[in-house]
Structures are given as C-alpha cells and as structure tokens.
Write a structure and sequence with these properties.
The protein is α+β, with helices and mostly antiparallel strands and 151 residues long. It is built from one helix and four strands, in the order αββββ. It holds the Pfam family N_methyl.
Length: 151
Amino acid sequence: MFRRWRGWHTSPPPGLRASQRGMALIEVLVALLLLTVVATAFLAAMAGFRQGSVRSDLLQGAVTCASYVVERVRGGLTPIPDQPVDGNCDAVGWPNLSYRLVAMPGDGGEGAATPNSTWRAISVTVFPSSEHGIASAAIYELTTAASVTLH
C-alpha cells in the first residue's frame, strides 16, 4: 500500500511532491518568522543602547554646565542672585541644555539664616531646554558653597 520513497534519483509517488512543497513553504515561513523576531530584538536592543548613550551625553553636558556656572559665581563674573536666575548652556557647547541658579542663604555657623552669612550656598539645576523649569525633568543638580574663601 505505502511504498517508501528512496530519494531524489527516483520519482516520488504522486502525492508526495505536493506535500514536500507544503512542508518547504512551512519551513520558509517559520524561518522568516524567526528572522523577524531576532531582527526586532536586535533593533530594540540598539534603540535602548542609543537612548542610554544619549542620556549619558546629556548628563556629561549637565555636569559641565553646572560646573561652569559655579566657577563663574565663584570668580565674580556672575553675581549671586536674590531671585532664581535662568540661563542656557551655550557658552560650554550645550545649546540644548539650560540651567536655573538659586542662592541659598547659609547659617554662618551661628544658626541665623541671613543673606550675608559666611557659608552661603548656591544651587544649579540643569534641564533639557525644551523642559526648562520642570523639576521632574532635571538632569543634574549641584549645590555647593558660593565661595571657596571665608568672608
């Protein structure tokens, strides 16, 4: 009733050729599905890596910008503000970042928070320019002494 087919050198039984084509089509479809899954996973991993590297570049820019602002205040080129001051980081090569400089009164070591106290501090918060002022969007915040010398 069933004869065993012995390979390509003999002609297969009449129904076997069609079933072989069907099996080959299924194998090709499965291979394409696996290739699609692998390619999608690879692209997702690359997108995640790229997003992480962009984030680290922004963090590097934010640190550079905050340090620049602090050094300008300490060098006397930017006055210590009474109110928060907004600015951008163009001067250090980061036009897509902006900052907010805030003076924080210190206690002068005597417990009295006065603007003229010895240990006055400043805080610089860096944001993406498109989200400036949104606290949850802050990339970096630096709080330090406004001066490295005692007055």
